[in-house]
Design brief:
Radius of gyration of chain B: 19 Å
Radius of gyration of chain A: 20 Å
CATH superfamily of chain A: Tgt2/MlaC
Distance between the termini of chain A: 59 Å
Structural class of chain B: mainly alpha
Number of domains of chain A: 1
CATH architecture of chain A: Roll
Helix content of chain B: 55-70%
Distance between the termini of chain B: 53 Å
Helix content of chain A: 55-70%
Structural class of chain A: alpha+beta
Number of strands of chain A: 5
Shape of chain B: globular
Number of strands of chain B: 2
Order of helices and strands of chain A: HHHHHHEEEEEH
Oligomer: heterodimer
Largest interface: A-B, 36 and 39 residues
Strand content of chain A: 15-25%
Strand content of chain B: under 5%
Largest sheet of chain B: 2 strands, antiparallel
Chain lengths: ~210, ~240
């Protein structure tokens, strides 16, 4: 009898998993839990080895981000001034910068926990905010960490992250605008490349 | 110490000449009409940080175990909760304000003068309020962005708020001057030590640290005034 109940549960669950795409809050939760589990147990990461963090971010986190949308948001009205080829270049470099930043943040991890705030998805919604907070192990005021996601086909993709109300994407808009006004789109690409190459050398030195 | 004094003096000179030389190099952010001055002041603050504050904070961070640092943070946090409560009342958030006073009452007594934040463990939430936020809540616009020496980024409104924050600061108003100075220095270093980690991430993230910090400050303040419920404005074009 137990076996049959188990079997039925198994089938019901797998059918449910097939039929239903992952909800945005469930997605954030599973990715966060997975990444934090690895960060908690990995000795290399704890000693500040960013290379490993970069790999981790690359395989577990990046597939759930929409970098084109992020780059477009960060550029604002300047985005249209860029040719499709330039847009691609900008997206690649900005992606690398964001990944680097995220990896750096992971190496600073010190046993904080993430708490998930109540979330409900209304039917037909394609643009949502999933609210979480970082709780310090030592107490202190929790820091809000919010994800903005949009639905692309059957998948939800993150297009911005807010830490304590600071949008990581929008925070680049001023810098990007002034780079474009002084050196054009190509100038901005060059600045981004220089920043990323400088990060490369810093990482290999470690 | 004299070598340090010379370095600081040199720093001031560099900052002053940067102001005169840069004139008004603006990137056209309408919130930042005195960008030339602000950038110079920012460079001065960064220099001061690199020379004095950050090295001391790094040493402090390495020397003191986390629980002790937490005790220090809690101690000063408890003192600041008093005027957090006052500001909540001034903003009409009576239950938040009463909660803050309750926190002070609990933490000052069974929390051993604030060293243990028992109120948070009991579920009485800690808030982030100051006079600048109160003015914002009252509808005062934030005005231009300005970088103050030592205090760092503010807006004109938050500068007025800061004046009241300083005037009402229990630590800064202690009669016994040596204790006041020691406590103020400890608080400064402890705050800086708490920010070391974020600082490393910002260095990784920022193309231009000045405008990165400016954007972050303006966004953060807006968020705080709305108590985390700020409406979002994407304006994609």
């Amino acid at each position: 009898m137990k076996f049959i109940v188990g079997l039925i549960t198994f089938f019901v669950l797998s059918v449910a998993a097939l039929a239903q795409e992952v909800a945005p809050d469930a997605l954030i939760r599973s990715v966060t839990d997975e990444v934090l589990e690895i960060v908690r147990t990995d000795k290399d990461l704890k000693s500040g080895n960013t290379r490993k963090a970069l790999e981790l971010v690359d395989t577990r986190v990046l597939p759930h981000f929409n970098f084109t949308r992020m780059t477009q948001l960060a550029l604002g009205r300047e985005w249209r001034k860029a040719s499709p080829a330039q847009q691609k270049l900008l997206t690649d470099e900005f992606r690398e910068l964001l990944v680097r930043t995220y990896s750096k943040a992971l190496t600073e991890y010190k046993n904080q926990t993430i708490a998930y705030k109540p979330f409900s998805l209304k039917s037909g919604e394609v643009d949502v905010k999933v609210r979480t907070e970082i709780r310090q192990p030592s107490g202190g005021k929790p820091i809000e960490l919010d994800y903005y996601l949009e639905k692309k086909g059957n998948d939800w993709k993150v297009y911005d992250i807010e830490v304590g109300g600071i949008s990581l994407v929008m925070n680049y808009r001023d810098t990007f605008a002034s780079e474009v006004s002084s050196g054009g789109i190509d100038g901005l690409v060059k600045t981004l490349q220089a920043k990323n190459r400088a990060g490369d050398t810093a990482a290999t030195k470690k | 110490m004299t070598a340090l004094a010379t370095k600081v003096r040199l720093l001031i000179l560099v900052a002053l000449s940067a102001i005169t030389l840069s004139g008004c190099a603006t990137s056209g952010n309408p919130k930042d009409p005195i960008e030339g001055f602000n950038r110079a002041m920012f460079a001065f603050n960064e220099g001061l940080d690199t020379l004095v504050i950050k090295p001391v904070a790094t040493g402090y961070d390495a020397a003191l175990p986390a629980p002790i640092q937490l005790g220090v943070s809690n101690f000063f946090g408890n003192i600041s909760d008093l005027f957090v409560g006052v500001n909540n009342l001034l903003q009409g958030k009576v239950s938040d304000g009463l909660g803050d006073f309750g926190r002070v009452a609990i933490n000052s007594t069974i929390g051993l003068l604030g060293v243990f934040d028992l109120a948070s463990e009991m579920g009485i939430e800690k808030h982030n309020e100051d006079f600048g936020q109160t003015f914002g809540r009252w509808g005062v616009g934030d005005g231009a962005y300005v970088v103050l020496p030592v205090f760092g980024p503010r807006t004109v409104r938050d500068t007025f708020g800061l004046v009241l924050d300083v005037k009402t600061d229990p630590v800064g108003n202690m009669d016994h001057v040596p204790t006041r100075n020691a406590a103020s220095a400890l608080r400064l270093i402890n705050d800086r030590a708490n920010a070391l980690s974020a600082d490393r991430v910002i260095d990784e993230a920022a193309l231009d640290k000045y405008s990165y910090i400016r954007g972050a400050y303006l966004q953060r303040r807006r968020n705080l005034i709305y108590d985390g419920q700020a409406p979002r404005d994407f304006d994609e074009d």
